[in-house]
Write a structure and sequence with these properties.
The complex is a heterodimer. Chain A is mainly alpha-helical. Chain A has one domain. Chain A has helices at residues 14-30, 33-54, 82-85, 90-109, 111-115, 122-155, 163-191, 195-206, 209-218, 228-234, 241-268. In chain A, helix 4 packs antiparallel against helix 6, helix 6 packs across helix 7 (163-191) and helix 7 (163-191) runs parallel beside helix 11 (241-268). The two termini of chain A are 31 Å apart. Chain B is α/β, with parallel strands linked by helices. A 6-stranded mixed sheet of chain B has the order 6-7-8-3-9-10, sandwiched between helices. The chains are: A mainly alpha, B alpha/beta.
C-alpha cells in the first residue's frame, strides 16, 4: 500500500474516458487473430468473385470492367445478376460477423461487467465500439480494394474508369462503414451474450435483403438511399460528390440513431 | 458517514423478487460480512450496488450520493463472481486494459503494487486462462484494488483459495479497513468472515433479516459448556432439567449446556448423580452456528 498515496487519480472527462476505452478496444482489435483473418477474407473475396465470372455457366461474363469487382456500374437496388451484387458491399456482411464476435467476446469474458463497474459511461462504450468496428471495416474495404485490383488484373478485363467517380465510390463505401458499424454494435447490445443471433441478424441485414425486397416493391427508387444498404449501393462507379454527401448523411444519421438507441438500451437494461 | 445506504431496494426478474424491499447500511471503514443462502439475493444486491443491473425500486446511495454518479463509481473496486478477463491475454495485459479504463496515469507502478499486494507478482506474464482458480480469485482482488478504491464489493472472493490464500486475503482486507476502505464481502465460508468482519448483514429471500455489528453478534452468541460422559442421553436429560437447555452435538458427541459454568456443571453431575465427565470446555457459538440457528428459526 506504500505507493497508494502517490497514485494520481483524475476526474475523467469525456475525451479521457473515450481515449482509455478506444485504447483498450484498438489493443484488443490488433490482438485478435480473427481481425486479420477477416482482412484476409476481404482480400480473397474478389478473387473468388472474379474466378466465378471467368468460369463457365450463369456467372460467366458478368463483369465487363475490372473495377466492377469493386463496385457496380450504377446504383441498382434490384439485382438482376450477381455482377451487380458481388462487390465491396460484401465487406459489410463479413464486417457484421466480425463485429458480433468482437463485441460478443466482451460479454462472454465478463469484460463488460468489469468495465461498467468503473466510471465508464454507456454512451462511451457505444461510441468506442462503433469507431473501432468502423475502423476494422474500413481496413477490410482497403484489403478488398487491393484484392480486387489483383483479381481484376488476373481476369484480363480492362481497367478503364473515371478516376473521380471511382474515388467517390471508394470514399462513399468507406464512409458507410461507420453506419454499418453502429448498426452491428446496436444489434450486439440487444443480444449480448447470444452472439449467434447477432451474427445471423447482422448477416441478413448486411446482405441488404430487406432493401432488395423493398426495391422489388417500390422499384429502383433513390428513397432507398435512406437505408445503409441503399447508400452503400449508391456509392457506385458512376458516383459523384453528391453520392459521397448522401453516404455521409446516411451513415452519420444512422450512427447517431443507433448510438443513442444503444446507449438508452444499456442504461435501461441490466448490463450483466 | 455511511459508505452504502440502501432503502427499500427491490429487484424483480419476471415474477421473481430477487431483492425485496431491502434496507442496508454499511458504515465507512467497515468490513461488512454479507451472509445468506444460495439464491438469497446477495449477488443481485451487490450487482445493484455496482450498477451492473437496474433496480426495480428503492434507492442506493454511496457516501450520500446516487450510486450511478460517475464520481462515486470511480471510488469502487469490484469482484463479482469471477474477474472479467480475456483468457488469451496475460494477467499483466488484462490489468493494463482495466487500468486504461480507470484512467490511471502511472499504471505500471499501480499494477505492480496490486499484484504484489495479492502475492501474484510472479504471475503477471501468465496467460489468464492458464491460472488456477485460486490465482484467478487473487487476480480478481488485484483488479478490484486497482485505482486505490474507497469501497470494495467482493462476491465470494475466498472461494477457491487455499489456506495461505485465505490468510493473505484476511491480511489485505484488514489492512485496507484500517486505512479507511470500506469492504462489502459476501461469503459462505463464515469461519473466515468471522475473523475479519466488523459488521454483518443476513439476507434471506431478498429481505434483510438482521444487521448487526460484530459486538452485537458477540453478545447474541451465548457461551456454553461442552462436555463428554459415558451416559450421554441420561446426562443430557439431567442437565436439561437443571439448566433449561442442553443439546447433544451429533458430530462431536458432546453435550452442550448453555448459561452454565464448567466447574459447577462437572461438580453437579458427579456430586448428585455420580456421572464422571471425561472432557469439559467452555466455548462460544460461532457465526456459522448462529446463522444456522437463525435460518432454522426462520424456516419454522
Amino acid at each position: 500500500m506504500e505507493n497508494a498515496k502517490t497514485l494520481q487519480f483524475e476526474k475523467p472527462s469525456f475525451f479521457t474516458r473515450l481515449k482509455g476505452m478506444l485504447g483498450v478496444d484498438f489493443y484488443r482489435l490488433f490482438h485478435t487473430p480473427l481481425y486479420f483473418i477477416f482482412l484476409a477474407i476481404a482480400a480473397i473475396i474478389p478473387a473468388l468473385v472474379s474466378m466465378g465470372a471467368m468460369g463457365e455457366g450463369e456467372t460467366a461474363g458478368m463483369f465487363t470492367n475490372a473495377w466492377q469487382i469493386i463496385a457496380a456500374d450504377s446504383p441498382l437496388y434490384i439485382i438482376s445478376n450477381m455482377g451487380e451484387y458481388a462487390n465491396m458491399n460484401m465487406v459489410f456482411i463479413f464486417g457484421g460477423i466480425m463485429v458480433s464476435i468482437f463485441i460478443g467476446h466482451d460479454y462472454r469474458s465478463g469484460y463488460v461487467k468489469q468495465l461498467f463497474t468503473t466510471h465508464a459511461k454507456k454512451e462511451d462504450y457505444m461510441i468506442s465500439k462503433t469507431l473501432v468496428s468502423a475502423f476494422s471495416m474500413v481496413c477490410m474495404c482497403f484489403t478488398y480494394l487491393i484484392g480486387g485490383m489483383i483479381a481484376g488484373a488476373a481476369t484480363g478485363l480492362p481497367f478503364a474508369i473515371n478516376a473521380g467517380s471511382f474515388l467517390c465510390a471508394i470514399l462513399g463505401k468507406v464512409i458507410m462503414s461507420l453506419g454499418w458499424a453502429s448498426l452491428y454494435t446496436f444489434i450486439n447490445i440487444i443480444f449480448r451474450r447470444k452472439f449467434g443471433i447477432s451474427i445471423a441478424l447482422c448477416f441478413v441485414l448486411g446482405t441488404g435483403i430487406p432493401v432488395i425486397g423493398a426495391a422489388a416493391l417500390v422499384g429502383n427508387s433513390v428513397a432507398l438511399n435512406i437505408f445503409l444498404y441503399g447508400s452503400s449501393v449508391y456509392a457506385c462507379l458512376s458516383a459523384n460528390f453528391l453520392s459521397v454527401l448522401v453516404c455521409l448523411a446516411c451513415s452519420l444519421a444512422w450512427a447517431v440513431v443507433y448510438n443513442v438507441l444503444g446507449s438508452v438500451l444499456l442504461y435501461r437494461r441490466d448490463v450483466y | 458517514m455511511n459508505a452504502i445506504e440502501i432503502r427499500n431496494l427491490t429487484k424483480t426478474f419476471g415474477e421473481k423478487r430477487a431483492v425485496d424491499s431491502l434496507n442496508m447500511t454499511v458504515p465507512e471503514g467497515a468490513i461488512y460480512g454479507f451472509i445468506g443462502e444460495n439464491g438469497s439475493g446477495k449477488s443481485t444486491t451487490e450487482k445493484l450496488i455496482c450498477g451492473l443491473i437496474q433496480p426495480s425500486g428503492g434507492e442506493i446511495k454511496l457516501w450520500g450520493k446516487e450510486h450511478r454518479d460517475p464520481e462515486m463509481r470511480a471510488k469502487i473496486g469490484v469482484l463479482i463472481e469471477a474477474p472479467g478477463c480475456f483468457p488469451n491475454y496475460t494477467v499483466w495485459n488484462n490489468m493494463k486494459l482495466q487500468a486504461a479504463n480507470l484512467g490511471i496515469k502511472n499504471e505500471n507502478e499501480e499494477i505492480r503494487r496490486v499484484l504484489h499486494l495479492v502475492r501474484m507478482d510472479g504471475a503477471a506474464s501468465n496467460k489468464f486462462k492458464n491460472c488456477s482458480l485460486g490465482m484467478k480469485q487473487r487476480i480478481g482482488i488485484a483488479f478490484a484494488l486497482l485505482g486505490n478504491p474507497k469501497l470494495l464489493v467482493l462476491d465470494e472472493p475466498i472461494n477457491g483459495l487455499d489456506a495461505d490464500g485465505m490468510r493473505i486475503m484476511r491480511e489485505i482486507l484488514t489492512d485496507l479497513s484500517r486505512r479507511g476502505v470500506t469492504v462489502l464481502i459476501s461469503s459462505h465460508i463464515l469461519g473466515e468472515l468471522e475473523k475479519i468482519a466488523t459488521h454483518y448483514g443476513i439476507i434471506r429471500g431478498g429481505k434483510m433479516l438482521k444487521e448487526m455489528t460484530a459486538e452485537q453478534l458477540n453478545a447474541d452468541c451465548p457461551t456454553y459448556v461442552a462436555l463428554k460422559t459415558d451416559e450421554i442421553e441420561k446426562t443430557r436429560d439431567i442437565l436439561q432439567r437443571a439448566f433449561g437447555r442442553a443439546d447433544i452435538d451429533e458430530q462431536t458427541g458432546e453435550i452442550r449446556v448453555y448459561n452454565a459454568n464448567a466447574e459447577d456443571t462437572a461438580k453437579y453431575l458427579f456430586g448428585n448423580f455420580g456421572i464422571a465427565v471425561s472432557e469439559i470446555r467452555t466455548a462460544k457459538i460461532s457465526l456459522e452456528e448462529y446463522y444456522i440457528n437463525l435460518m432454522q428459526e426462520e424456516r419454522k
